[in-house]
Structures are given as structure tokens and as C-alpha cells.
Amino acid sequence: MTALVIASLACAAWVYVILMRGGFWRAAERDDIAESAPFPNAAWPHVVAVVPARDEAEVIATSVTSLMRQDYPGVFEVIVVDDHSTDGTATLARAAATRPDLGAPARPLSVLSAPRLPEGWTGKLWAMNCGAGFVDAMPEPPDFVLFTDADISYSVDALTTLVTRARRNGLVLTSLMAKLHCESFAERALIPAFIFFFRMLYPFAWVNRPENSTAAAAGGCMLVLRRALRDAGGVAIVRGELIDDCALGRLMKAQGPIWLGLTNRARSLRVLGSFAEVRPMISRSAYAQLQYSPWLLIGTVLAIAVTCLSPPLLVLSTTGAPQWLAAAAWGLMAFALQPTLRFYGVSRWWGPMMPAIAGMYLAFTLDSAFRHWRGQGGVWKGRVHRRAPDGQ
Q: Does residue 226 fall inside a structural domain?
């Protein structure tokens, strides 16, 4: 009887996920289905890119070069905010902007040094705030700010497409989920599932509907209407948030419509060659996603155990209705992952491996909680995230 109940719950959960979560699994919200024609009767707006960078020597030159090469017809400038790097990031950024093969006219580049990190701020948000403050103080402040990570490389038409979508639809935030590197065995196993689970938590179709309260963004690429960000109180409002992109998404959706989609125009340069290298990306913020709640952690453990781990076990250990229902749940989860696997060019046979993949994500989530309890939560670039006290 217990097996039948568990199998029924697992099957019902995956039916709900497929039918009732905004069709997130179809991976339909993509910028290759964008309005590519320029918006009529309007000058192209002024845009400034703000690139927070801390010890990014391996990727900063490629990232800056891709920004310098944008075919954007309007005024476009780039600001790199060096966040106390020790590997020559600032020097490499300046050198990338003066490469002779970039052609003319060159995009203006400024490299700022972030002041000392204040208490209550995460490093990335402090660097973004420094860049935003510099932008606001410009004699002619831009219409849009492109917050982009230092490990993102853009196709030449990425900014033009972003601005076109933002202007046509009156968006205050237009965000692209950069396509992550997916070549190593560990990346093929875990990266498509990472994107899948993110979209399950924040269905893009819901994010993109002004009437729906769901809000999110992808921190690697966020085109923000500067006036709307200023009216919302600026980056300082979310200064202590570990999941900073979704916090900024919530802040901006209160100001107007936002849009989030998958893309091939922005790609991550970060290579994660092993499971040990993938783990920090997940465990850094997994417990924060659960609001640092032991009860939500327990609920997550039970939910993953029932919906993802139990189906293959029941298929192998039961017969009759429990076995058939468990097989259906296993098949549904494998089916739901297929569009994401196709988007990443990964074998469809990773779909049936979803139970094992979910088990690894569960392990990373528990690791995230344990690290938080030991005072080592949110470690990134040598910094430990200190959770702000409640009410601050």
C-alpha cells in the first residue's frame, strides 16, 4: 500500500509539473524568436555596460572584446568595476579594449576600482552599485544599463536584439540566461538540469506576464532601464541578497514589465571540468533559495525523494500498479528534460538519468545547508556570505 501511495504521488507530481507550471519544460521563451526589426521612429538609446569583475584574468579579455565588437547603432560604453582583483584583471580589460583588430570606432571603456566592501553587501552587488553610481553621475546618463558578468561572451547582435525587445515591449528589465558551457562529462550531466530546475522554480512564461507575481532574472545579462532602477531605490535595495539576480527581478517587476529568456547570443566562458567544480555553483545559493529554513530543507528532501528518487527504486522492487505508476513518473521526468537537452545539444539519454542527477542536486543542497550552519555559506572568490539580520 505504501509503494502504491508513493508511486501515485510521484506520478501526480510530474503530471502537475508538465501541465501546470507554465510550460517551463518546453524551453519556449527564447530570444531567437525575437522581434529583430528595429523599432520605428525613435533614436537608438544610450547604453552603458557595467561589468563587475573579481579575479577574472582567464575570461575578462574575451568578455570585453565581445562587448567592444557589438554592432549596436547607438551610443554604447563599457565600464569594468575591478573588485580588488589580484590577477591583473583590470590591466587585461584595458588591453582588450585597445586590440587593433577591433576596428573603429572603438567603444569607450572605463575601468574603476571598487572601494572597500561595506558590511551588509555582497561583493558583486557592491561592484554593480559602484558602476551604477558612476553612470548616474555622468554628464549625459544613459537610458539603459547592461549589467553583465565578466565571464559572458556576446554575439555581435546581442545588444541590438536586447534593446529592440526592451523598447518594443516597454520593458524595465530584459534578461538573458546565458548559455552555460556544456562540454565535459560533469557539465553534460548537471548543466541542463540546472537550467531545468531554475525554470521550474521560476517559469519564464510567468516571469514575462505583468499580471503574474513571479519575478526572476539571470545575473549574467540584465538590461535595466536606468530611470526605473533609480525610482526603485537602486541596487542598494538588494545589497545583501545572495541570489541577487532574482532579487533584482522582483525589485524591477514592481516598476514595470520584465522579460527573461534563453539565448544563444550570450555564452558563459566558465569551464566546469569536474563535479567538484560544478558543486560550488549550486551549493553556494541552494540553502538561500530555501530561505535558510530547516523545515523547507526537510520538505525539499522529502519532495525529491518521492518525485525523483523513488520511481526507479519502485520500478525495480515492485510489481503491478505501483511499478506501472513509478515507470510513468520516471518516463515523465525524462520526457520533461528533453527540450533542455536539445537546446544544449546533449544526448537525449541523459533524460532517464534524472533520478541520479536529482540525487546529486539533493546532495549539493544538503552541502549548502551544512556549510551555512558552519559559517561558510555562500563562499565565492574567497569571500563568505554573511546573512544580514532579519529586518535589515
A: yes
